Amino acid sequence: MSGHAEIFEALRREILAGRYDAEKRLPSEALLAQRFGVSRPTISRVTLDLKREGLIMTRKGAPTTITRYALNATGALGLVVPGEGYAEIFRPLERRLGRLAERAGWDLIHGEIKSKDPKVRAREVRRLAYQFSREHVAGVFFQPLEFIEDAPRANEEAARYFDKAGISVVLLDYDIVTPPARSRYDVVGIDNFAAGLAVGRHLVRAGARRIAFLHRPHAAPTVTNRMRGVASAVVEGGRPWSLKDNVLFSEPDNRRAVAKFLRKGLPDAFVAGNDVAAAALGGTLAGIGGGAARIRLVGFDDVEVAGRLGLTTVRQPLDAIAETALQTLVSRIKAPNLPPRTILLGAELVVR
């Protein structure tokens, strides 16, 4: 091995794997040059890059030592996301995170919450938190639980496992506490209010007089923000809006609740918190029949079902979310005492 990049990658992986924990120092440049069969200037370039990466500290006349960040980092990151039946958007995001992490020299350990039973889901997230703390991952991407009554408590308990183990956390999509409260963790997602506003404005421009919103029980704060964005656009367009008349708090397949809501009058458009919920609502409306089957459906996320059903939706910028989440988590691992950051990205309205 003689290339600068290959030597850098080899040493980087060794450092993150904990090979130099015992003495907290890297071999001298002379020894490294001998090991890899290259010149001292080549090793000097590698040393400089390792320093820029935050893995080593160099001082004139002193040995090169491993940084606190490098000692805490194991070379592995954890990922806790809901099963695909709950949030299809996280499967493609997971793939992108995996590719980016591997390219940056990290192993990504996947943890999926698969059960549909609320109590079991709460236990699963705590189990994964415990597992990752035992495996000493350097950091975790965590999409908090939703759609269960005790989600805040389960999320907070999982976060305490991470804190106790000294594991840095980046929350995906939303915080573990209800706004306006703010937790101590970084959050990366899209600007959901702006996304809802874009949807609402589009529907108003398209001539929709009455716009309804499906809000599932115990849904995440992101759904509430999407609803508020839609409501703001409706009011901005001179149309009435109230929680009683415009918002259905129900599961999308609850035919009785949907039918009761429709007795107030058929909306021109029905916006759901995501594409999967919109598709399920479409099936319920089709079962009710009549004018209900012709209500325009709108979702969020732009997952596969949106294209198949021709839904207008909001496309999540998955590449940007994955890249931002990884950068945020690595910077948090390097500097644990940074103040909590909320990074919201723009999203594209897709009209079909």
Kindly describe this structure.
The protein has 352 residues and is an alpha/beta fold. The protein is 47% helix and 16% strand. It has 14 helices and 14 strands. The protein has a 6-stranded parallel sheet, with helices on both faces. A 4-stranded parallel sheet has the order 9-8-10-11, sandwiched between helices. Strands 1-2 form a two-stranded antiparallel ribbon. 41% of the residues are buried. The model has no long low-confidence stretch (mean pLDDT 90).
Summarize the structure.
This protein has 352 residues and is α/β, with parallel strands linked by helices.
- Helix and strand composition category: alpha/beta
Amino- and carboxy-terminal Cα gap: 53 Å
CATH topology of the largest domain: Rossmann fold
Question: Class of the largest domain in CATH?
Answer: Alpha Beta
CATH architecture of the largest domain: 3-Layer(aba) Sandwich
How many strands in all?
Answer: 14
The residue ranges in which pLDDT falls below 50 over 5 or more consecutive positions are none
CATH superfamily of the largest domain: Response regulator
- What is the helix/strand order? HHHEEHEHEHEHEEHEHHEHEHEHEHEE
Describe the secondary structure blueprint for this structure:
Elements: H1 4-16, H2 29-36, H3 40-52, E1 56-57, E2 65-66, H4 68-72, E3 76-82, H5 90-103, E4 107-113, H6 118-135, E5 139-142, H7 151-164, E6 168-172, E7 186-190, H8 192-205, E8 211-215, H9 221-236, H10 243-246, E9 247-249, H11 255-262, E10 269-272, H12 275-288, E11 296-298, H13 304-309, E12 313-315, H14 318-334, E13 342-345, E14 348-350
Parallel strand pairs: 3-4, 3-5, 5-6, 6-7, 7-13, 8-9, 8-10, 10-11
Antiparallel strand pairs: 1-2, 12-14
Helix pairs in contact: 1-3, 2-3, 5-14, 6-7, 8-9
